[in-house]
Design brief:
Blueprint: E1 6-7, H1 9-23, H2 31-50, E2 55-56, H3 58-92
Helix pairs in contact: 1-2, 1-3, 2-3
Length: 104
Amino acid sequence: MDPDPAPATKARAVFALGLVGFLAGVFIGGVIPAVIALVMARQTARDAFTAKGYLTGSAWIRRGRRLAWAGIVLAITALVVASIAGLLHLASAPSGTDFAPGTD
């Protein structure tokens, strides 16, 4: 007798963490839930594979994985933009001591 297909409880958690990682990705803090979502996605996909089709939720895992990667990309983009803005700000600042004209 085969068991009934059951939804994977971790699949929704992967999606939720991926969504949080995507929404908070711009603020760099989204990396943590995104990485946790990716780790849980790997575990859940492995569990679903060993369950031989009786554990459902692969669509939630796929969506969560995509959102987590998008959150990581957003965080990296935010870091690059912030560092470029910081470098431009540093480059526009005068360097050295500024003396009045006619001072030796």
